[in-house]
């Protein structure tokens, strides 16, 4: 925040004071309702940020020379927030997985019951980890590919801290028992309205920065980020249209009724996968993969064709979540057809990524960061194939409501989304902090294998248990009665649930290793900034052992 | 009259034409010879070494 001008600091202070007053109003109106607790949290959050802002408020005006550099301060904070949410969200995930094997782990409390920690896990990893990673990398990529500094210095902070306030309100709400009962959209009306404000600011900032670009052509990664920002805004607004009980209550009711509600929810839900968990991460792929491999993308034209294919087709695929329901049959067919067609642009993207590596496979062997990105492209291809397959109605009759779906989601979330994120972070962190390389290449290697083995254990466990579950549910005796009771299927799941929790644990440990490695990279003195002969107290003098390790 | 049937007909028939028309536009944009240089430049521009905004 050291680079903020007086005007920007004043604007920040005004916004934070307004937010603090809003927090007081929410607390006063809501009283003992969860809205009241959230009001107190909004108040504390804005006061904490106000304290941070004031503690540097009387510093000198920033030098105009800053405008000749990219604005990377929000990116640095964003990396930290990304890692915090990764560890938090994955920890809750391991806990939820362990509860399925050992239900005692809810400690007989309501706040730790599976129904509450499960959305805390999904929101923590999707919005907390994924969302912060997307915002952070988008600020990096848009500046580098546009050759322009972010359009102003206030809105990046507003977007970053505003988004994290949303995550905080959402996740704490689930523990307190507040939910809209819409998957990936559980947060209540006031958090939803706040997210709209933050998101519109994000959109305006992104467009303004693109408008300042010195490159005539907008690089394809920015198209994906723009699709992510625009479509998530549309989805979020339409799916969350709701009428609160009153302005003093957290509870609201959706304006959609019956099967329309289901259809809107899964139009939202599947496009959350498409535009939150795919489009933005493909943007990372199209920037960090060529950068890391030091090879241009195999075919730029193919990336354009697959962009329009993915954005167009995904919009129609959501109804495959509602096979065999009251949704009209032709709408189910439409969703199924578009899901199958989606395989073409999806595999075009995955193939484009893997073909880019032709001629650089020795780097994949030697460089764990590039291997993260390669594995992500591989898992992207795998899970999009699986997705198209599961969307076919007769296949869905076996897989729906079973762990197969959970396995599919995690092949995408762990194998694709998380791996491309870590590959991008390992490329971004040394670049932003002007370090030659990560603190430890060996730890990147350790992380890679933990992540890969964890993902494989998780996904194979869920494939097995899901198919067994589906088959047991549909096994009839010759007299046309069900052979297995529901309890029988649970007993059959037990070993797989243990394996799944173990796979998730490995992945969590990998994320902790990444956080440590990145922390040490940031702390490591860069040779240019801190020469060894500098006049420093002995304890601050960098030791030889703290020097970055040689190239891998 | 704007009814359920109108929507169904719109989706079933005009949706298809929309898809076909849209695909043709994308194909033209992608393979237009005038765009060749722009795309080839885009492939390479991310490798420029200088790390600062252009003024």
Automatic annotation (TrEMBL), chain A:
Positions of region (Disordered): 533-552
UniProt keyword Disulfide bond present: no
Reactions accelerated catalytically: 4 Fe(II)-[cytochrome c] + O2 + 8 H(+)(in) = 4 Fe(III)-[cytochrome c] + 2 H2O + 4 H(+)(out)
E.C. number: 7.1.1.9
Pathway: Energy metabolism; oxidative phosphorylation
EC category name: translocase
Membrane topology category: Multi-pass membrane protein
Keywords: Cell membrane, Copper, Electron transport, Heme, Iron, Membrane, Metal-binding, Respiratory chain, Translocase, Transmembrane, Transmembrane helix, Transport
Transmembrane segment boundaries: 37-58, 79-102, 122-142, 154-177, 189-211, 223-247, 267-289, 298-317, 337-360, 372-393, 413-433, 440-463, 497-519
Location of this chain's protein in the cell: Cell membrane
Top-level lineage group: Bacteria
Protein name (Swiss-Prot/TrEMBL): cytochrome-c oxidase
TrEMBL record, chain B:
Keywords: Membrane, Transmembrane, Transmembrane helix
Entry-linked InterPro entries: Cbb3-typ_cyt_oxidase_comp
Pfam families on file: FixQ
Regions that span the bilayer: 13-32
Superkingdom of source: Bacteria
Keyword check for Transmembrane helix: yes
The protein, known as: CcoQ/FixQ family Cbb3-type cytochrome c oxidase assembly chaperone
Species of origin: Shinella pollutisoli
